[in-house]
Each structure stands twice: as C-alpha cells, then as structure tokens.
Amino acid sequence: MAESGPLIFNGNVAESWRRFVQKYEVFIAAACSTKAKKTPAYILLNLAGGEAIEREKSFTYEGE
Q1: What share of the chain is helix, strand, coil (3-state, %, to 5)?
Q2: Which domain of life is it from (predicted)?
Q3: What are the boundaries of each domain within the chain?
Q4: How many beta carbons lie within 10 A of that of residue 25, not counting itself?
Q5: What is the pLDDT confidence band of residue 15, given thresholds at 50, 70 and 90?
C-alpha cells in the first residue's frame, strides 16, 4: 500500500475514509487473497493507525 499515513478523524472524515478504503481494497486484493480471514482486518487497523485501534477496542461485535 502506498504510504498515505493513518486514517484522519478530523476534517472531512467521510472523504478521508473513502480514499483510505479505496487504497486498502487494492492492497488486500493484491496481497491477502490466500491469508486467514482475520488478516485483512488486522492489516486495516494497523494501517489506519493508533486512533483507529483505540476506537476499535470500544466496539461490541455481534455474537460476543
């Protein structure tokens, strides 16, 4: 994935997210087609940065 920095949570967050996901999807398609199911999620959090990781910790997932 081209170095784009972490996901930005201020300003136009929707546009920042759209661009981030676009780059992420291309990267995952190229690099993770044979990896475990959770690998893309871990890569997403790593690329999104520390704030995204902290926010994800507060999520409640269905079935947990």
Answers
A1: 60, 0, 40
A2: Eukaryota
A3: 34-59
A4: 12
A5: very high
